[in-house]
Specification:
187 residues; 4 domains; single chain
């Protein structure tokens, strides 16, 4: 879409409606892109001041330790970034101490478990897992794919061979084998 030349009427409409309408709705009305609306809002120094109500703050204080920011954002009709900022403003932090046991668990399982699975086991967010893995310098090697042939071999031999033997034949880590056995319900 070519750049729009803003008429005085368009600017006036924006000034009168930016608090009532989203950038997407304003863009549709003005026949431009949402980023064009954002640019003009910034140029005119127009800022939306979405107020946090006392009720929303109380709700955050009550449930922030039990829910992840993505869920809180959805429930409160805002963004994850807005939730993170508000939690910071209210000095609400989810602290889970990183112990030697938790570090060891990460080191032993990061290659065989996803960040989501690690987060669930450690009862923390995926972001916290990613940050800790980075701080520990733990990078995943490329994940081995399960071919139909390897899966078939696993199905035929999981009762006959040890996990380590299957891992050796498949050229995979024993943890991958254990997870696949669980995933396939072969226990």
């Amino acid at each position: 879409m070519p750049r729009k030349k803003w008429s005085e009427e368009d600017k006036q409409f924006l000034i009168e409606n930016y608090h009532k309408m989203s950038n997407k709705d304003l863009a549709e009305h003005l026949n431009i892109t949402p980023s064009g609306v954002s640019y003009q809002l910034k140029k005119l120094n127009l800022k939306r001041n979405k107020k946090w109500t006392t009720e929303k703050d109380e709700y955050l204080r009550k449930v922030y330790t039990e829910k992840i920011n993505k869920d809180l954002a959805q429930e409160l009709g805002t963004t994850v970034c807005a939730i993170e900022k508000r939690l910071g403003t209210l000095k609400l932090r989810r602290l889970k101490k990183w112990t030697e046991d938790r570090d060891r668990f990460l080191r032993e399982n990061y290659e065989i478990m996803s960040n989501a699975h690690l987060a669930k086991k450690l009862e923390i967010t995926e972001l916290a897992v990613a940050k800790k893995l980075s701080r520990l310098g733990l990078l995943r090697s490329k994940k081995k794919k399960w071919s139909k042939k390897k899966e078939e071999f696993l199905r035929e031999n999981y009762k006959k061979l040890s996990v380590e033997e299957i891992a050796e034949v498949c050229g995979m880590l024993p943890g991958y084998i254990k997870n696949k056995i669980i995933e396939l319900g072969l226990q």
